[in-house]
Amino acid sequence: MKSLTEHLTFTTKNRREYINITDTVEKLVEKSGIKEGLCLVNAMHITASVYINDAESGLIQDFDDFLEGLAPHEPVSKYRHNRTGEDNGDAHIKRTIMGREVIVAVTDGTLDFGPWEQIYYAEFDGRRPKRVMVKIIGE
């Protein structure tokens, strides 16, 4: 069995951003030389997420509106977590809703997606470096 592990680093300009990382992950699958296996992509921070969905701008804004409606950033006094001196209680909740990681099958050397599927990195407490791990295993 072969494996490849790489870390991607993102520093977003805004507190919340959604970044399509599909092309980057596909290049790592190619680099790995693995033809049949699995590709794990996971956020290494508890205020960021990796998820799969459609790359349609209206849908991405719908996700953001939905999450902000469920767990608005302000007032920051609303969150007990923020009593620790942080202001990101909402980001922890958003990450839990959107999930930590995705696993995609690798078939014949490519990511085996359904129609319209794309991999996204979602940042909920940005403006500082955060890592995403990509681990590809197989033959």
How would you describe this protein?
The chain has 139 residues and is α+β, with helices and mostly antiparallel strands. It has a single domain (2-138), classed as Jelly Rolls. Helix content is 25%, strand content 37%. It has helices at residues 22-32, 57-70, 89-98, and strands at 2-10, 17-20, 36-43, 48-53, 101-107, 110-111, 118-123, 130-138. The radius of gyration is 16 Å and the shape is elongated.
Properties at a glance:
single chain, 139 residues, Jelly Rolls, five-stranded antiparallel beta sheet, three-stranded antiparallel beta sheet, 8 strands, elongated
List the helices and strands and how they pair.
Layout: E1 2-10, E2 17-20, H1 22-32, E3 36-43, E4 48-53, H2 57-70, H3 89-98, E5 101-107, E6 110-111, E7 118-123, E8 130-138
Antiparallel strand pairs: 1-8, 2-7, 3-5, 3-8, 4-7, 5-6
Question: What's a quick, concise take on this entry?
Answer:
The chain has about 140 residues and is α+β, with helices and mostly antiparallel strands. It is built from three helices and eight strands, in the order ββαββααββββ.
